[in-house]
Description:
This protein is α+β, with helices and mostly antiparallel strands. Helix content is 34%, strand content 17%.
Amino acid sequence: MTVxxxxxxxxxxxxxxxxxxxxxxxxxxxxxxxxxxxxxxCAFLNQQIAELEQQAHGRxxxxxxxxxxxxxxxxxxxxxxxxQPIEGxxxxxxxxxxxxxMLNRGLVEGVVCVQNTEQDRFQPMPVIAxxxxxxxxxxxxxxxxxxxxxxxxxxxxxxxxxxxxxxxGCQIQALRAVEKELGLxxxxxxxxxxxxxxxxxxxxxxxxxxxxxxxxxxHYEFMQDFRVHFKHEDGSLEKVPFFGxxxxxxxxxxxxxxxxxxxxxxxxxDLVVGYMGAPFGWQWIVVRNQTGQEMLDLVQDQLNTQPVTxxxxxxxxVQNSIPAYDQGxxxxxxxxxLMGVVIEKIGPKGLEYARFSIxxxxxxxxxxxxxxxxxxxxxxVPEYAQKIVEQYKLPQ
Length: 396
C-alpha cells in the first residue's frame, strides 16, 4: 500500500513502516497517512512525555514531589464506584458511562473505543462509536495490542470537530503528538492505566498456562489482593496467586513494547480511570486537568466516591520480586496461596499498592531495556522513572 504524505509531514524512506521494529506497540498510527509523523510521535522512537505533559496539562511533573513521579500531573484523585453498575462491565462501568454521557449531551460527535470482532472475544476492533449502544458494545478490556489510532484517517474524512478518544499510554502519546494535525475543535482523552499487553497468540498462551478453563474466560485482571481474577462465562470467578504464575514459561509472553514502557499511569490523558490505587472493588480516578474535571463532572451524581488512602510499605516486596522475576521463580501453588494470604493482610494497599505495581514493572522494564536495547537506555527512560528505579538494587 502506498501512503500519501499528509500535509507538511516529512516523507519517510522506502520500507520504513513500523520503524520502531520489535518495540512497535501496534498503536495504529503507522496504518494511516500520519505515519509520516511517526519518528516524532512514536513513544518508542521519541520519548517526550515531559514536553507533551506541558502541552496537554499546562505543566510537566514536579520532580521534587514523589506523587508526581508515580502518578503524573494531577489535580485530584479519588476512589469511585457507580451507584448502578452497567451489567457486563469489567468494573462498574465508569468509562462507558462517561462516553455515553458525552454523546448524549452532544459534547462529542464520536468516541474512539475498542469493540471485539465477531469471531474472537479478545481480538480488538477499533471503532468510532457514534451512539451509546456502540460504546456499550466496547465494554470490557481487550488485553491485547490494539491499533486504536488506525481510525485517525476516518476522523478527518468524517469532518468531526469534537471527539473523545479512549486509549492507553503509547496510543495517547502518539495521539497528543499529532493532535494539532487532526483539525479538531476539541479533543477529550479518557485513559486507562496499562501494563503487560500481549499479542493474541501471547494471550492464548497466558490463558492456557494460568487458567483452569481458558476457553471460557470473559476477562481477567491482576488485582490488589495479589491474585489474578478470571471471570468466566458462567459468572464464576477463578483466582490465581501472582506468586503461583508459571513465570518461567511466561517471561517472554509480554510484548517488547510493554517491557520497554514507563507510562503505566497514562500520563497524557485528561482523565484516567483504573483500579490499582483504590481499595479492592473500587476504581481509581485521576483528574489531570480541567478538561478531565469537566468529564468527571458529567457523571459525578452517578458515583459513590471516597478519598484515596495509602497503607503499608512496598519496598521490601519490590526488592524481593526483582530477582524472583529475573530468575523465573515459580512457587508451588500451596506456597503461593499462603504467601498471597500473608501479603494481602500485611502488604501495601491503596496508593502504596499502586507504587508497588509501578516499582515492580519499572525495575523489570529498566533491566529489559538495559539488556536488550542498551543504546536506547539514556534517551528512553524518563527522569521520573529513573528516580523510581534508583530506589532499588538491580542485578546486572
